[in-house]
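Example complex used in Figure S2.
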Amino acid sequence: DAGVTQSPTHLIKTRGQQVTLRCSPISGHKSVSWYQQVLGQGPQFIFQYYEKEERGRGNFPDRFSARQFPNYSSELNVNALLLGDSALYLCASSLGPSSYNEQFFGPGTRLTVL
Amino acid sequence: GENVEQHPSTLSVQEGDSAVIKCTYSDSASNYFPWYKQELGKRPQLIIDIRSNVGEKKDQRIAVTLNKTAKHFSLHITETQPEDSAVYFCAAWGGGADGLTFGKGTHLIIQP
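Predicted assembly (226 residues):
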């Protein structure tokens, strides 16, 4: 049984560029959340999507956007990259959108902005 | 919004001893409190969780306790082993939040 998958595993970009990260949830899970983990810190909530609708947004600028597809996979887009966007981006899937559903994390995408 | 404080940031214990990591949260409406273990370069893995209608939960060598009145919860690991060495994160969710709020993590070091 496959877990949460993310692509790519590593990515190097320069300031001002745009990046798209991808996530495939566990089969049967309809909710996908995105988190940013800066080195040495805990993950910070960015977005939650459920049934293709945005259900929540953390304290991140409008440069960050996401979407969910009919197969429940998701993309996170970051525009106008800053050095401070360098982090591990984690995707988590769950059966539903509420706190009653456990979240399972993918391996993450390591983004480096030069 | 929710704020989660985690202590200590680093914890070193002798193999076989117990380890305790403590977290406090600010939003009394939070109702779900998971603990994740993250090894270097790997994904956070859920090791145990507790909901607000339960005071304590145990799974073999791992236990979590919750004090809703004081708004704090703790992770207890007994008979520590070398493979317990990792960074542990507490988190909270509930109320008006749309996702997990994490603590800053505890680096647990098991000394042989």
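Chain A has a mean pLDDT of 94. The CA atoms of residues 12 and 112 of chain A lie 5 Å apart.
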